[in-house]
Amino acid sequence: MAEYSTDEAEFSRFDSSGSEDSLEVVEDESDVADVSVLSTLDQAKESAISRKRSFRRTSAAKSDVPPSKRTKVAHGTSTRVNVGGQQRVDEFPNEMLVMSNGKLVCQACSTEISKKKSIVASHVATQAHERNKAARLKAHERQQLVLKSFQDYQKRHCKDLVGTGLSPAVQDEKAVYRIEVVTEFLKAGVQLSNKLESKMDSLRPLLQSNKHQLTNSTHMAQYVPFVLETEKKKLLEEIKEAEWLSVIYDGSTRMGEALAIIVRFIDANWNIKQRLVRLHTLAKSLTGQQLARELITSLTKELALPSGKVVAGIRDGASVNTAAMELLRNTMYPQMNDIICSSHSLDNVGKRFKIDLLQTFCRWWISLFAHSPASRLQWHALTGRAVRSYSPTRWWSWWEVLSQLYAQFHHVLPF
Hints:
Layout: E1 4-5, E2 10-11, E3 25-26, H1 29-40, H2 85-91, E4 97-100, E5 103-106, E6 111-112, H3 117-124, H4 127-156, H5 172-187, H6 199-207, H7 217-220, H8 224-240, E7 245-252, E8 258-266, E9 272-281, H9 288-302, E10 310-315, H10 319-330, E11 337-340, H11 342-351, H12 356-370, H13 373-383, H14 397-407
Parallel strand pairs: 7-10, 10-11
Antiparallel strand pairs: 1-2, 2-3, 4-5, 5-6, 7-8, 8-9
Helix pairs in contact: 4-5, 9-10
């Protein structure tokens, strides 16, 4: 009998009975070869982030409820009367209920609810609705303050804003929404504009789904000066309530020369607050006099702090910081206490310990994991924890490595 073939497989001949049940499928030899080759190769190990995602059920689905426990409704016994949603809005005033596309929507909770009176009454009586309503009212008040501040900003900079798109011609609600978008991007540390790709421009279609039109990221970045001015005003209001405060300052050369100044104080409710008041990028490292000038400018001119309010200065033992502190105490802040960072001091003390064998072992240990991903995976499989890494710019990372070695030393020999 003749043989039949297709593109996918070859079929064997029928047996003498002619039955189709005896039809056998013979796989292509190339498929068999591919399977045999794959079985000889190592499979890539997936990371934890590539795990399969599953849906989390918040309540039992209908199929999970046994038929004996399901609620049965007799047909033809319903006494429901169809009532318009506007009637429910009128019956529950000040509850932020509105009609949208023929549906009853709670603006506070951003959810659609049934028009049945008992369900509406139950919804507005919940604590979640009260919290959402209070948050909505507070957000509205904040938006009004932002709008008033922006209008004042426009009046003070009316000449500078001509042709920028920030003129009073922009609708109030639209301007407030744009300011909120820029503020949230800055809080999250997301760059507004980029020559290659802007994340704001990529998210623009989603952000515009709130029925407020945005502009390109270059134009949106023009709101940054106003946002900065608003944040400075908030900072000044916070600092005014503090009776005393301390200043923390230091420089960094990791990603370029930069000076950071932080004030630390206690508010009226005895909560410890820390606020970054200046992050200044520089062309080169500062001298002691230059650092003292930057500190005096920030504390006296920008924050308008009286000399008696700054009671302490906290810094590390670098020579430039020491020189700046001496100038501050001899000129503007004679009552300032000079506090050297205890963590840096302890770290410097530890560097002088004579532990040559331990230091040699740790250097080899760090080098092993720094250049071998396979070693890191093997350590994680053995201990269930990722190995601590060392970084020259994080001086406490050496202690983290030693601490993990001490806690898991019984795994070192098996490893």
